[in-house]
Write a structure and sequence with these properties.
Structural class: alpha/beta
Radius of gyration: 18 Å
Order of helices and strands: HEHEHEHEHEHEHEHEHHEEHHHH
CATH architecture of the largest domain: Alpha-Beta Barrel
CATH superfamily of the largest domain: Aldolase class I
CATH topology of the largest domain: TIM Barrel
């Protein structure tokens, strides 16, 4: 499957594992890269020294390309960038901020830069900033959501129409069939988060993984738009958020409720009542925990089978 994304990253399949907070450590990134995709270490939940350790361990665990995802609102960005340069990371995905901040700096260091967006407007800003590729993420996703609630089905062709750099689709993609659909709409590859949350190598707590398996259609909702839009499983914490909205509470009240460490409490420590449980709508199609290599293999197999079915359709 050699296309622009495979050539850009030097990978076998145009499958990128999202760099999710509290989930995407070196074990997951290395496993996905070894399986032929592109693994990403999620720096958003790591102190600088922790990130350094994960990068070094990932180098030992794979000789394939891998990258680091950095949320641009990270408070210790100078240290994070210093580590990325020192450790000679070749691929950086940036998100949750202005792509103009660091794209040129990183590219001048020989790093391939990709930015995650949720709208045509920010896709164009990313292209103007000089990124090598763009991830366009629909509101079905668990994180990095747009306030406009644009679905992947509509976002991908609208972005494709306006940009001339490779396009990666994200949001609601967990199967080979969805991967084929995204590429039919104009994507050159896919970024997948939720499906890899329930991989064996994911850093997510087993309680969280099992809760994802139990989540059905309608079990999540996009919320906290005034702060950082995320899609949450409907647990006790979610209903407290819902109550504040019903009271028309100010954003400050939402921030007080969110506090610090809610995502860590839920996703990493396994508190299913008071933790923030971020996952995409596609959770309803995830039914088992399995190794990342098996997830990638299944994606590619089902993609090819879906291709055969589509080409056999007569109109």
């Amino acid at each position: 499957m050699k296309n622009s994304i495979c050539r850009l990253f030097g990978i076998e399949y145009p499958v990128i594992q999202a760099g999710m907070v509290w989930v995407s450590g070196y074990k997951l990134a290395a496993a996905v890269s070894n399986a032929g995709g592109l693994g990403l270490i999620g720096a958003g939940s790591m102190h600088p020294e922790t990130l350094k350790e994960h990068i070094q361990k990932c180098k030992k665990a794979t000789d394939k390309p891998f990258g680091v995802n950095i949320p641009l609102f990270y408070p210790e960005m100078d240290k994070i960038l210093e580590i990325i340069i020192e450790e000679e990371v070749k691929i950086v995905f940036s998100s949750a901020g202005n792509p103009k901040l660091y794209t040129r700096f990183l590219k001048d260091k020989g790093i391939t830069v990709v930015h995650v967006v949720s709208s045509v407007k920010f896709a164009l800003k990313s292209q103007e900033a000089g990124v090598d590729a763009i991830v366009a993420e629909g509101f079905e996703a668990g994180g990095h959501n747009g306030r406009e609630e644009t679905t992947t089905l509509t976002l991908i062709p609208m972005v494709k129409e306006r940009i001339n750099v490779p396009l990666i689709a994200a949001g609601g993609i967990a199967t080979g069939e969805a991967m084929l659909a995204a590429m039919a709409l104009g994507a050159d590859g896919v970024q997948i988060g939720s499906r890899f949350v329930t991989s064996s190598e994911s850093s997510a707590h087993i309680n969280f993984k099992q809760e994802v398996l139990r989540t059905e259609d309608g079990g999540t909702e996009l919320t906290l738009k005034e702060l950082t839009p995320v899609r949450l499983i409907k647990n006790d914490f979610y209903f407290k958020v819902k109550d504040l909205y019903n009271q028309k509470a100010a954003p400050e009240k939402l921030q007080d409720l969110l506090g610090r460490g809610r995502a860590k409490k839920g996703m990493f420590q396994g508190d299913l009542q008071e933790g923030e449980l971020e996952i995409g709508q596609i959770a309803g199609l995830i039914h088992e925990i399995k190794p990342a290599k098996d997830i990638v293999a299944e994606l590619i197999h089902d993609f090819r089978e879906a291709q055969k079915r589509i080409t056999s359709i007569e109109l």
